[in-house]
From TrEMBL, chains A, B, C, D:
Pfam families: Asparaginase. PROSITE patterns: ASN_GLN_ASE_3 (PS51732). Gene3D superfamilies: L-asparaginase, N-terminal domain. The lineage of its organism: Bacteria, Pseudomonadati, Pseudomonadota, Alphaproteobacteria, Sphingomonadales. InterPro entries: Asp/glu_Ase-like_sf, Asparaginase/glutaminase-like, L-asparaginase_N, L-asparaginase_N_sf. Substrate binds at residues 56, 85-86. This is Asparaginase. GO terms for molecular function: asparaginase activity. Residues 6-153 form the L-asparaginase N-terminal domain.
Amino acid sequence: MSLAPILVVTTGGTFDKQYFDALSEYKIGETVIDKLLAIARVAHPFRVVELMRKDSLDLTDTDRALIRATIDAAPETRVVITHGTDTMTHTAAALADVTGKTIVLTGALAPARFAESDAPFNLGMAFACCQSAPAGVWITMSGSVFDALKVRKDREAGKFVEI
Amino acid sequence: MSLAPILVVTTGGTFDKQYFDALSEYKIGETVIDKLLAIARVAHPFRVVELMRKDSLDLTDTDRALIRATIDAAPETRVVITHGTDTMTHTAAALADVTGKTIVLTGALAPARFAESDAPFNLGMAFACCQSAPAGVWITMSGSVFDALKVRKDREAGKFVEI
Amino acid sequence: MSLAPILVVTTGGTFDKQYFDALSEYKIGETVIDKLLAIARVAHPFRVVELMRKDSLDLTDTDRALIRATIDAAPETRVVITHGTDTMTHTAAALADVTGKTIVLTGALAPARFAESDAPFNLGMAFACCQSAPAGVWITMSGSVFDALKVRKDREAGKFVEI
Amino acid sequence: MSLAPILVVTTGGTFDKQYFDALSEYKIGETVIDKLLAIARVAHPFRVVELMRKDSLDLTDTDRALIRATIDAAPETRVVITHGTDTMTHTAAALADVTGKTIVLTGALAPARFAESDAPFNLGMAFACCQSAPAGVWITMSGSVFDALKVRKDREAGKFVEI
């Protein structure tokens, strides 16, 4: 386990939602990833690429192609992607044939800006998984490391479950 | 990656420190692990054993033998130990010859009860590492997964570094 | 300044907003007032009446009449009302001719459930104002105690200002 | 209630306690007042003077004379003092004969850096009290506005009570 740099790609989702009072609206704001990693006292080298700020229900094939191309072009073999939870598995499928990289998708059911949020724990899970797991695509949600092609989101139950 | 249960052994450390105003003192309080795992929306099965509430500078060989015996006797093959950071590597060495289990030690440099703490992220790292990494003893601190026998704490720098 | 009980009337607003992932929506949830007052270690006697869970843009004259009637009927002479900020001054006007009571309206620009919110500070302001100020209607927002009939919300600037 | 500026004098206490892992110790750190007031979206004019960083059990008569002199020399007629809770009433007595100013002492039983702390609520109480109350010395703790000369701290019960 050497200190090979981690690429963090942010795409939006509940993870980065913020409340804009003047609009009486919740929107995805600037990513909080750098702040979370600073609070977590992360010394491991990493690089953040803020690709988009979208609810995952609004992601298009073009968006997924951009996520894919970004990962293909990157020198890093360890990748963490923060993503809305609703279509996380759909994006994972679009990355299934990437070779030589350990890719981990995660997100949050409560915004990171909330006092009580799963965001920091999930981000920690993803950071460890991309260092410990073999090459492939993974999802870290609900306390489990899942094979990203064998999991689905159970929306009503508020958790991810193995298929 | 199946949903094999995780054993969480808590021993104290900064992770669980609390402020007692009537004593004008900070002491290790009741473990906050269950609360953190609830906030993290963990659905993965786990069992918590609160073994002791000690600053790791106060841990004795008897304490370490108890930690070892608890892990040996447990049915779980995946173990997370929350521990003070000052002698975490010492306890890891005492577990080095356990076989057939993935054991991950973690802790925190700021108490979990703080608004800005590395505790939830580190706990998430440990939860993922015990599911993804091969059998052996690991430490997840400072954003990295370390071989527990090849790491030390750099106290002044406030981080763990590879030896 | 004796320990005369305080009546806390909650009507909703951003103060109590919560994120419901299964609905991909933010809605006003159960009031967090009791939890905030417990964290604030409030020993002063108080009584909470959760009247409604509305965005203040949705409050009707019937709602305002209910708020008014509740305050008129209450034995308490000290009243705190948590309320959405958009029409707080409108409700204040509906209470202008209540006699013998110190009524303080407050709210929040960020939900109390957020890690960084003005909610606890504003609630503290209101608790003190209803004990220190003379009878009448007041608004505590943006760090100031305002005569509730001489203030307006400057939405773009995100603050309340004297008229 | 005009926007007359508020002088905030910080003296230390639990309010500003911070954990320094490299020292395995809790010490009073740089005051968090400016950060709390920013989170509270305070637009009211104020000025912060960080006089000392002491546990109130360590305050001397010289310290109290300095606090007194600072207030006497200030142009502001509204003063908030953050202070350790153990000898808050002692310092209040040293300010009893100041004329023409509304002085409010407050503090916290849990550090402001904690996720669950009475600090922001208490600070809000003090900000409102110095605007609403008549000239004199007040203490805002435990949800009540107290005449500072008629209150004591009940350490075991963790609250302030009227004498």
